[in-house]
């Protein structure tokens, strides 16, 4: 046994060096494993954080996407048409069609008027919102004595500025919603209509229903307004008119100078950015004298 535990000086030094080396390796291995654990934990944390950041980015992208809400294509403005992807020519075709006092009542008719592509129509048409009388028309019923009813004279008609919702409901094609809408619109514009043509601005009234209304009602006490000479009116005077802003007023004056004065109120349709579909209302406030 003595021979197994008796070492020379060199052997003891070698054994000691081996033990020290083993300790050093164990210490290095311990710290290396610990570093790997920390790295793995950081990697897990960073992965979760990145996933959170990515999800927030997706939400942000979704929120910044252009959203199209249901709309009536008859009232597409230049800016609205541009954001929808329509060309200037397509928008102009729609405005020219509306200037003739005609209405687009279906996606097919919209494409026929504007000549938009099938792909763009497929994107836009799901968002078209037409009045209820277009999407869900009521069956026409025979109107008794329709061929023998004598048109009412001006004196026999009821003043549209004093008519109640109950009186309006008697008109064929007018229900609770439309009668209340007419009265609400009248209150919104100051309690009085200026002329019969303002009925066209009430949402949901078809030309046929308006015609039925005007068989029994008319504006007898028009709202007093100030009328301006289109050839002398200033920009500040023009902007007091409904549907005319400063930019349109400026364009009217520029066109007036270019034409050396307007010869007809219909010349306004040549003015840049002029709301052609509102010309009948705007001209109520204008004169050439």
TrEMBL record:
Q: What keywords are annotated for this sequence in UniProt? A: Membrane, Transmembrane, Transmembrane helix
| Gene Ontology CC: one annotated term | type II protein secretion system complex
Biological-process GO terms, alphabetical? protein secretion by the type II secretion system
| Entry keyword Transit peptide | no
According to the record, the segments passing through the membrane are: 12-32
Pfam family name, one: HHH_3
Q: What is this protein called?
A: Competence protein ComEA helix-hairpin-helix repeat region
| Organism this protein belongs to | Bizionia echini
């Amino acid at each position: 046994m003595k021979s197994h535990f008796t070492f020379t000086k060199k052997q003891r030094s070698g054994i000691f060096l081996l033990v020290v080396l083993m300790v050093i390796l164990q210490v290095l291995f311990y710290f290396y494993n610990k570093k790997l654990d920390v790295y793995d934990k950081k990697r897990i944390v960073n992965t979760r954080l990145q996933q959170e950041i990515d999800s927030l980015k997706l939400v942000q992208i979704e929120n910044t996407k252009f959203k199209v809400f249901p709309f009536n294509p008859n009232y597409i403005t230049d800016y609205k048409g541009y954001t929808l992807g329509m060309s200037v020519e397509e928008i102009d075709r729609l405005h020219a069609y509306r200037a003739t006092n005609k209405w687009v009542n279906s996606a097919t008719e919209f494409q026929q008027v504007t000549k938009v592509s099938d792909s763009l129509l497929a994107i836009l048409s799901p968002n078209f919102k037409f009045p209820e009388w277009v999407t869900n028309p009521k069956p026409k019923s025979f109107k008794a004595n329709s061929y023998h009813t004598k048109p009412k004279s001006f004196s026999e008609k009821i003043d549209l500025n004093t008519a109640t919702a109950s009186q309006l409901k008697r008109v064929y094609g007018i229900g609770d919603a439309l009668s209340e809408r007419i009265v609400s619109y009248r209150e919104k514009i100051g309690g009085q209509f200026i002329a019969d043509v303002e009925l066209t601005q009430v949402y949901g009234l078809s030309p046929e229903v308006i015609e039925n209304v005007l068989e029994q009602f008319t504006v007898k006490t028009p709202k007093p307004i100030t009328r301006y000479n289109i050839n002398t009116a200033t920009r500040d005077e023009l902007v007091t008119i409904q549907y005319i802003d400063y930019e349109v007023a400026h364009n009217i004056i520029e066109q007036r100078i270019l034409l050396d004065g307007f010869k007809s109120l219909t010349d306004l349709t040549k003015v840049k950015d002029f709301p052609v579909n509102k010309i009948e209302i705007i001209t109520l406030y204008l004169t050439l004298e």
